[in-house]
Design goal:
It is a single chain. The protein is of the alpha+beta class. Helices cover 30% and strands 17% of the residues. The protein has two helices and three strands. Strands 1-3-2 form a three-stranded antiparallel beta sheet, covered by helices on one side. The protein is globular and about 25 Å long. The chain starts with 7 loop residues before the first strand and ends in an 8-residue tail after the last helix.
């Protein structure tokens, strides 16, 4: 399967559009292929309920998911990263 045909999987939901793009940039600089989905949903405040369902999603090819999650843990210094 070509990388272009590989299924994208969600690896992170950002709290905001700026956070999503900061993570996207960090991942791209490390060589990952990244797509941010749902970023326009936060602009629909008032029409859509804000929260988890409208949070921007960080998507990567399935083959890069585990390594990309580890990178996010290092970049964001998530408290439970060492427990994974």
């Amino acid at each position: 399967m070509d990388k272009e045909d590989e299924r994208l999987v969600e690896i992170y939901r950002a709290a905001s559009v700026p956070e999503a793009h900061a993570i996207r940039l960090a991942l791209e600089e490390a060589g990952f292929e990244v797509d941010v989905q749902g970023e326009l949903l936060q602009g629909g405040a008032g029409e859509l309920p804000m929260g988890w369902s409208t949070s921007p999603r960080i998507m990567v090819p399935e083959s890069q998911a585990e390594e990309a999650r580890e990178r996010i843990d290092r970049v964001t210094l998530r408290p439970n990263a060492a427990e994974r």
